Amino acid sequence: MTIPDRVPIARVRGYRTSHIGRYAEGQFFGSVTATLEPGTGAEPDRRPHKRWYAVLHRFNPAGDHTGSEIWFAGTSERERAAIKVAKAHLKASIAALPGHTFGDIAIGLFHVEVDGHVFGLVDGSDSYEGVDHAEFLPDSLGFDPPWDGVYDT
User: Fold this and answer.
1) Which residues pair with 9 in a beta bridge?
2) Does the pLDDT of residue 7 top 80, yes or no?
3) Confidence band (pLDDT; 50, 70, 90) for 42?
4) Rounded CA gap, 17 and 153, in Å?
5) Residue 46's pLDDT is what?
6) Burial class (CB in 10 A: 0-12, 13-18, 19+), 79
7) Pairwise CA distance, residues 55 & 41, whole Å
8) Residue 47 near residue 75 (C-beta atoms within 8 A)
9) In 10 A of CB 78, how many CB atoms?
10) Where does the source fall among the domains of life (predicted)?
11) Is the pLDDT assigned to residue 138 strictly greater than 80?
12) Left (φ > 0), alpha (ψ -120 to 50) or beta: where does 97 sit?
């Protein structure tokens, strides 16, 4: 089995895929997520290196990536404030999508780079010893056969 052309992603209300669905021009995937600068995970104070973002990826009805809004909200030096403002930004961005409704989606692999970090749905099979695996980054959501939309974290 190989990674399908369109990876199904199930909406789980109140959890990591709560902000996905469809709108007048296609599909969307929204999240509030963080990145960590390479090599800073073992530092005693990694707060300045953990960066929070509001992310909204858009896709056409067939699931092809058409664009991304990746908005930097702040670092973990002021984590609660950064997350709060990121959530507000994401909420406003989704509200601006005409005719948006929340629900399951199916999208193709894609990636964009922002601030030196990859955002998107990428082929992660190499990290799984060649076993078919798609990974949504930087959210760390893993998708595997039977490709039913369920993810691992």
Assistant:
1) 105
2) yes
3) low
4) 11
5) 64
6) middle
7) 22
8) yes
9) 14
10) Bacteria
11) yes
12) beta
Q: Which residue matches tokens 């973990």?
A: 76
53/35 Cα distance (integer angstroms): 8
Q: Say which residue, 54 or 127, is predicted with more confidence.
A: 54
Q: What average pLDDT is seen over the chain?
A: 93
What the block records as the tokens of 123 is: 């082929």
| DSSP state string for 76-135 | GGGHHHHHHHHHHHHHHHHHTSTT-EE--EEE--EEEEETTEEEEEEE-GGGGTT---EE
Mean pLDDT of 94-119: 97
Going from the C-alpha of 60 to that of each of 44, 105, 129, 133, 140, the distances in angstroms are: 43, 11, 32, 23, 23
Q: Sign of torsion, CA 113 117 123 129?
A: positive
- The token pair at 83 is 């997350």
Q: What share of the chain has pLDDT > 90, as a percent? A: 82
The answer to whether residues 101 and 90 touch, using CB atoms and an 8 Å cutoff, is: no
Please give the torsion angle defined by the CA atoms of residues 100, 67, 20 and 9, in that order, rounded to the nearest 10 degrees.
Answer: 130
